[in-house]
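## tool: complex_structure
## caller: assistant
## args:
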Amino acid sequence: MSNLWLIMLLAVPLIGSVVTMILQPEAARKWALFVSIATFLVSCMIALQLSEALMNGGTAPEYAGEEIAGIGASFHLGIDSISMCLVLLTTFLTPLAIAASFTAVTERTREYYAWMLALLVVMLGVFIARDLLLFYVFFELTLVPMFFIIGIWGGPERRYAAGKFFLFTFAGGVFTLAATIYLGSKAGTFDIDTVVKVAQTQLAPEARWWILLGLLAGFAVKIPLFPVHTWLPLAHTEAPTAGSVILAGVLLKLGTYGLLRLALPIGLVAADGGVAGNVVALIHFLGALCIIGIIYGALVAWVQQDIKKLVAYSSVSHLGFCILGMLAFNDIGMQGSVLYMINHGLSTGAMFLVIGMVYERFHTRDINKLSGLAKKMPIFAFFFVFFTLASIGLPGLNGFWSEFLTILGAFTSEHLGIGYGVLAATGVVLGAVYMLHMVARVIFGPLKFPGDEHDTTHHAHPEPHGISGDLNHREIGILAPLALAVVLLGVYPNLIVGPIRGPLEHIMNVRTQKSIGIAAAPPHTSHQESL
Amino acid sequence: MISLFPVLWPELLLVLTASALFLLGLSRSPQARQSAPILAAGALGCVFFGVLMSDQTGALHDTVSSSPTFYIFHFALYIKLIVSAVGVLLVLLAWPVGEDATGNAALEFGHDAGEFFGLMLLSIAGVFLVAGANDIILLFLGIELASIPTYIMVSISRPLPVAQEAGVKYFFLGAMSAALMLFGFSYLYGTTGLTKLDAITHLFAAQNGMSAWQMLAVIFLMAGFAFKIAAVPLHVYAGDVYQGAATPVTAFLAFVPKTSGMVAIIKILYAITGGTWAAPDALFKLFWVLAILTMSFGNVLALLQFNIKRVLAYSSVAHTGYMLVGITTILAAGHHPEIQAEALAGVLFYLAAYGIMNIGAFGVLQMLPAHHSIHSSHPLPPTGGAAETFDDIAGQGYDHIALGLAMAVCCFSLTGIPFTVGFLGKYLLVKPAWEIAQTTSHVALSSKMGWLVVILMVNAAVSAAYYLRIVASMFLRHPERKAPAAARPAGAALLSTPAAWGVALSVAGTLAFFLYIPAANDLSARARLATQIQQKADMPQIISASAD
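## result:
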C-alpha cells in the first residue's frame, strides 16, 4: 500500500528548500517558516492516520517504492508510533528554530533557510526510512546541511567546530555503512524487517557481534556516548541558535533512534526474545559508558562559564540516561528511553532557544557577566526557570517521567541492576546542582548587564541592531508552544508511552499473547499500571 | 582488411582526427586553430554515441595467426564508452580561452593548441587499443600510446619550469615502468611461446597452476602497471607531476593513464588465471597488501598537503587503492563466478565514477582565479594564475557560488557521501568483498576480506578530512585579501566558458546516478555486461576454426 502523505512529508520541505534559493532574503524567511509549518501539518495528518489505524486495526501508513536493480535497496517509507513521535518532534521544533533565526541570522539568509529546510528533509527521512540503505543515506546526509549551518553561521570557532562535527560523525558512520552493506548482502535485501529477522536467525554470534560494533560506531558518535562526545560541546557552542536547537533536539536522536531501531534488534535481541548470550558483557560495558557520561557530563557542566556549553554538556549527561534505559531491556526502561528522546528534544531545544535570546541581547553567554536578569526581564526569567526545571526533572513537567522511568528501568533490569540505578540517580542530583547553580547566578542576584558592571541600575546599552528589553511577542510565541508541550507531557506522559508499547515489544521480540501481529494490535488505551 | 573498419573505427577516427589536428596546429589562421578543440570534442562525441548506439562486438583477425589481434567484446566497448565520455569532458576542461576569463594561461591558441588536442586523442586511442588488444605486443603498444603523449602534454601545458620538471620526471619514470613491463611481457612470451591473449588464457586454463618464471613475469607486469595506476610504492611521481602540469592536464593524468593500467591489469589477470580468476594465493596476497598500502599511503599523504593539486594527486592514489580492493576481491572469489562478476563490475563502475567526479573537482580548481592573480600589478605568478593552494580558494565559494557548490558536490562524492556516484561506487566495491567473507569457508580469507573492508572504511573517513578541508576553505573562510570588485573576474564570464560546461556535466553526472535511478541502473548493467572480457564459449571454436 502506498501512502502519498509520507512522500509529501519529504517533498514539501524539499521543494520549499529549492524555492527558498530563488526568493528575496526577506521573503525567504517567511517562506521557510510557512514551509516548515506546512510540514508540521503534514506530519499531523500522518499522525491522525496512524492513530486511526491503531484504533481500528488498519495498516500503518507506508510507501514502498520499486527496488533498485543491482543494488537491492528500495525507496521504502513507513511509520510506527516511535517514528511518529520523533517525526512530530522534528516538525514541531523546526518552525520554532526557523522563527528564532529571524533576527539572529542576517547574512546569506536565503542559503541559511534553504539548508534548514534541507536538513528537515533528511532528518524526517531517517525516521521514516524502512530500508536500511535508505536509512543510512539519510543518516549520513544530515552531515552536509549541518556542516554548512555551523560552519557559515556559527560563532568564532565555527570552522573548527563544523569540521570536527563532520569528521567525527562521518568516521563513525563509515563503519555503520560497512555493517549495513554486510547485512544487506547477507539478507539479499535492505528491507529493515527482513534484515532484522535474518540477523536474528541466520547470523553467526561472532559475526553479529562485529556487526553490532559497526552499527554502534556510527550511532555512539551521534548520540554521543562518553568517549566520543568531544565534538558535541564545541558544535553546540559554535552553532547558531537554531542549529543548536536542531542539533540537540533532533540530530542526537538520530543516534538513539538508530540504536533502538537497528542496533538493538540486529545485535542484541535473541530470536526468541531476551538478550543474545554473547553480548551481556557489551551491555555492561555500554552501561558503564552511560554512567560515566551521566556523571562526567554533569561535573563538567558544573564548571562551565558559558551557559551554552553548560547545556551542551548537560546533553551528554542526559543522553546517558536515555541509553541506559534502552540497555535495561525491559518495558519500563525502553519506554522511558523513547520518552527521554522526546523530552530531551523539547527541554534542551527550549534551553538553547532561551540562551540564544540572551545572546542576541547581550552578546555574551558568560555566567560571570550576567546576573539578576529577572529584575529587568521577568517574562524571560519565567521561561528560563521553567525550562530549567523541566530539564532537571521537576515532577509535573516532562523531564520527570523520563528520568524516573529510565532509572527505574535500570533498577529492575535483569542485566544492569541496582548499581547502575544508584549511580544514575546521583546524576539526577548533579543535574539539579549545575542547572540551579547557573540559574541562581544568571537570573537572580544583583542585576548586572555586561559592560555595565559599575552602574547596576542603568539599563543595558541598546545595541544598534540588536534587541533589548524583555522578550517580544515573537519570542514569546516561540517559547509558549514548547512550554505547553512540556506541561502536557508532564501531566500526561501516556500520550507517548501508550502508543509506543506495541512497536517496542516488536523490537524486543516479546511474543506474548497480546502482541502478536504488531501492526494490527490495538494500543493500550488504559493508563499504565506501573505509573 | 574488410573487417577492419567495424572493429577499429573508434581508434581510426581518433588517430585520423589527431593527425588532422597536428596539421591544423601549423595553420596561420587563428580561426582554423581555434577549431582544434571543436574537432577533438566532436571526434570523441562521435565515438561515444557510436559505441552507445551500436553495442557491436567483433574480432579482427590478422593474416599470420588464427586468433584475432583485436577482440572487441563488452569489456572493450564499456571502456571505450566511459573513456570517450570522460574524454569529452577533458577536452572541455582544456579548452583554451582568454586568460581573463579563467585566469588560466595554460594554453593559448597562439601555440600548441592543435598539437595538444592531437596528443590527447592519441592517448585516448591508446586506451582503446589496450581495451581491445588480444595480443600482448599490441597491449604494450597501446599502453605506450596512452602514455607517451602525456609526457609531452605535461611539458607543453604551461610555460613554467615546474611543468618542464614534471614532464621530465614523468617521462623518465614512465620509461622505466615501460621497461619493467616489457621485461614481464618477455618472460610471459618466453614461458608460453604465445603472444595472443586468448591463446595464453587457454594455455593457463589447461595447465595446472603457474610456474615460478611465469609468476616472475606477472610480478614484473604488475609493477609496470602499478606505475600507470599510481599504486604504492610506485606512486612517488604523482605529487610532483600532478602539481607541475596545468590543471586540465592533471585531470587527464588522473584518469586516462590510470584507466589504461587498470584495464591492462584486468586483462592480464584474466589471461594468467585461465579465464577463471582463480589466482594463486601469493597473487591474492600481493594485491591485498598493495590495495591496503595504496589506500592508506595515498590518504595520509593527501592529508599532509597544502597544494590542492597535490591533495587531489594523492587522493587519486587512494582511489586506485579502492579499485585494487575490487581487484583483490575478484582474485579472492575463487570459484564463485557470481561474486567475481560483481566485483569486476564494481571496479569498472568505480573507474567511471572516479572519472566523472574527479573532472568536476579539477575543473573548478582550474576556473577559480588565484588571489595573487587578482592583483593585476603582479606579473604572471608562478602557478600560472589558477588557484592551487587552500589559501587561494579561501572564501571563493561566495564569489562564485555555482563553482563552490560544484566543488562541494564533487568533494562529497569523492568522499563517498550518499546521493552521489562516489557512494554508489564504494557500495559496489564493498558488497562483493563482504559476500566473499560470508560465503567462504576459510576463516583466514574471511577475516582478510573483513579487514580489507574495515581499512577501506577507515580510509574513507580519513579522506573526508582533506576533501572537507577543500569545501571548508571555499565556504567557511574569508579571503585573506579582498580584491576590489572590478578586478575580480565576473561570475558570468566564468560560467560561459567551455570548462564551466565540463564542470556542469560532471556535477550532473555525479548526482544523476541517484536522482535518476535508471542512469545508475544502466551504467551498472553495462559494467555488469562488461565483465565478459571474451566470449568464453567461443574460444575453442576460434582455435578449431584455424585448423580448417
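## assistant note: Residues 280-371+384-480+490-533 of chain B form one domain. Chain B is about 75% helix and 0% strand. Handing back to user.
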